[in-house]
Recover the amino acids of this structure.
């Protein structure tokens, strides 16, 4: 979701398999999640077509709406590096690279995206990216690890008090089935029989 929101397009979030959540005694505060994400949230159970009409209505209502506000999960040091790189790179057609692609360029240590963009630096882009990554590593945000850390931290902040879990998880029939199928003896026998 954070990557979709970074694009800045009107968005609807549709958590699926809400039945599994409820079977496990959990509850999602969709209104609070919507408030924190800044987009509509519609709970669905797609396999039973529950919530699909509400999702369609939400999508239709979102068309033509202003883009969602882009909030980056990355630390300020990363945002500063993206801001300094932005004027230096362009799409193949010469258009400025959107900020989310500049982030991806900085995170892509394989060089794939780097080959797809134009640089105003005449071959110095690899050195500029290496220097930016070095500054981030020195600041305690090594690339590419900074992405996982930043996104998981963002997820934890967004979901705090949004997902309400029971003190003790209720046992489901799949738990009982898993106990048999993953048992050393019974699981092996079922596997051989199958």
């Amino acid at each position: 979701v954070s990557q979709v929101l970074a694009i800045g397009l009107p968005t609807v979030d549709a958590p699926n398999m809400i039945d599994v959540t409820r079977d496990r005694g959990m509850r999602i505060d969709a209104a609070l999640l919507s408030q924190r994400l800044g987009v509509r949230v519609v709970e669905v159970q797609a396999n039973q077509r529950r919530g699909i009409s509400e999702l369609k209505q939400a999508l239709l209502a979102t068309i033509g709406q202003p883009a969602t506000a882009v909030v980056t999960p990355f630390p300020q040091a990363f945002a500063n590096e993206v801001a300094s790189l932005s004027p230096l790179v362009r799409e193949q057609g010469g258009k400025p690279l959107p900020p989310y692609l500049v982030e991806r360029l900085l995170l892509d240590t394989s060089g794939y995206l780097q080959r797809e963009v134009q640089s105003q630096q005449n071959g110095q882009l690899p050195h500029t990216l290496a220097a930016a990554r070095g500054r981030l590593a020195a600041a305690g945000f090594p690339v590419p690890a900074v992405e996982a850390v930043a996104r998981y931290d963002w997820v934890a902040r967004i979901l705090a008090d949004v997902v309400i879990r029971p003190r003790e998880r209720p046992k489901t029939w799949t738990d009982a089935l898993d106990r048999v199928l993953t048992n050393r003896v019974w699981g092996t026998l079922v596997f051989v029989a199958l």
About this structure: The longest strand covers residues 12-13. The chain has a mean pLDDT of 90. The beta strands are 12-13, 27-28, 40-41, 89-90, 118-119, 163-164. The chain is about 55% helix and 5% strand.
